[in-house]
Write a structure and sequence with these properties.
The longest helix has 21 residues. A hairpin with a 2-residue loop joins β1 and β2. The chain is 40% helix and 18% strand. It starts with a helix and ends with a helix. The structure holds pyridoxal-5'-phosphate. The site of pyridoxal-5'-phosphate (PLP) has 15 residues, from α6.
């Protein structure tokens, strides 16, 4: 029997939902919909209902679902080589690293498979650098409301206690300060500090944008004290904000940059990128990843970056248009507390929990998300057009008009 047919046989929605409960560990509160295919800005469920996707797999499917250029090139790579080990050289890995170095203004890349891994790599690199160069005692300062992943080190780097509860003992050497507060950061720096890790635009925490003077101030402090500045751009990087990297809005550069989510266009890949001055502390045996930088993921990422390079102006335009339309809604409904973001990374803070709005939008055929309890999060594919924004906003208006407050 055809194996693909075997997988896609018996695809009754209720059976899939029931068997998910039975066979998958219960770590996600899923919405009751089984998605089966995607095309551009749309996805479709098993019943044939179409949804306009304004979350893009949490900022992963930036070039849209099943982008033809991506498929064409990934297919070609699938047919010649999927994986060998990092015991050997492969061409896509080197070409992708070169492209990332050029785009970021940094020098060297370590490839992994996810955001958490990219951050683990950054933490390890920073600590190794600190030890070698005599910078601090390995302590990494991170921001309140930040999010850096779910591995032990990255959930400890994530200040929110809910993520940490039950997983003690946690790794040592992390400390949290309020975001956008230079004085508090200054106070918390000591001779233990090796690095500062920041999302230039906090994603999971509710779409909070770093102030210009703040981020420049952090850069100055790091330069002054020789501390490493790590930017976690797992969510805000790769064109999401209208520039390839969010830090390019600030005229500064990090010492270490982490990427994942949108980087592979849907194929898992993470990257830890740094200046040569920092990168050189990694030597054979320092760090590793079996899958990291495999040819398939690297071709996918290379194609994705090429497509995103041509979308940046479009993202800026669509972001401004979307923001304007959401602000119009804000003037209509007093329960919309704030609309904030850059480019196509936008949050709308409500004065009540957003999960019912998300559900109602789903019923009407729109995928949006709510984070930090009351912030509607919009991360549409970067290929989104005005007509999609218009219908999304009209439908949101409809849902809001039924809200009783
Ligand atoms: C999603 C995310 C991560 C974790 O990425 P995973 O691929 O889920 O491990 C880390 N940092 C930020 C800013 C993220 O948004």
């Amino acid at each position: 029997m055809d194996i693909f047919n075997e997988i896609y046989r018996d695809i009754d929605e209720s059976v899939i939902i029931k068997e998910e409960k039975k066979y998958i560990m219960n770590t996600y509160g899923r919405l009751p919909v089984v998605l089966i295919r995607g095309n551009g800005v749309y996805v479709e469920d098993v019943k044939g209902k179409r949804y306009l996707d304004f979350i893009s797999g949490i900022g992963v499917n930036s070039i849209g679902h099943c982008n033809p250029k991506l498929i064409e090139n990934v297919k070609k790579q699938l047919e010649i080589l999927i994986h060998v080990s990092n015991l050997y050289y492969t061409i896509p890995q080197v070409k992708l690293a070169k492209k990332l170095a050029h785009l970021s203004g940094l020098d060297k890349v370590f490839f992994s498979n996810s955001g958490a891994e990219a951050n683990e790599g950054a933490i390890k690199l920073a600590r190794k650098y600190g030890k070698k160069m005599g910078v601090g005692e390995g302590e990494i300062i991170t921001m309140e409301r930040g999010f850096h992943g779910r591995t032990l080190a990255t959930l400890t780097a994530t200040s929110k206690v809910e993520y940490q509860k039950g997983f003690e003992p946690l790794p040592k050497g992390f400390k949290y300060v309020p975001f956008n507060d230079l004085d508090k950061l200054m106070e918390s720096i000591s001779n233990k500090t090796t690095g500062i890790m920041i999302e230039p635009i906090q994603g999971e925490g509710g779409i909070h944008v770093a102030d210009k003077e703040y981020l420049k101030g952090v850069r100055d402090i790091c330069d002054d004290k020789g501390i490493l500045l790590i930017f976690d751009e797992v969510q805000c990087g790769i064109g999401r904000t209208g520039k390839m990297f969010a830090y390019q809005h600030y005229d500064i550069k990090p010492d270490i940059l982490t990427l994942a989510k949108a980087l592979g266009g849907g194929i898992p890949i993470g990257a830890t990128i740094s200046k040569e001055e920092v990168a050189h502390v990694f030597t054979p045996g320092s760090h590793g990843s079996t899958f990291g930088g495999n040819p398939l993921a690297c071709v996918s990422a290379y194609v994705t970056l090429s497509i995103v390079e041509d979308l940046l102006t479009h993202v800026e335009e669509m972001g401004e248009y979307f923001m304007r339309k959401l602000r119009n809604l804000q003037s209509k409904y007093s329960f919309i507390k704030e609309v904030r973001g850059i480019g196509l990374m936008i949050g709308m803070e409500l004065s009540f929990q957003g999960k019912d709005v998300v559900k109602k939008m789903l019923e009407k055929g729109y995928l949006i998300n709510c984070t930090a309890e009351n912030v509607l999060r919009f991360l549409p594919p970067l290929i989104v057009e005005k007509e999609h924004i218009d219908v999304l906003v009209d439908t949101l208006d409809e849902v809001f008009s039924e809200v009783e407050v």
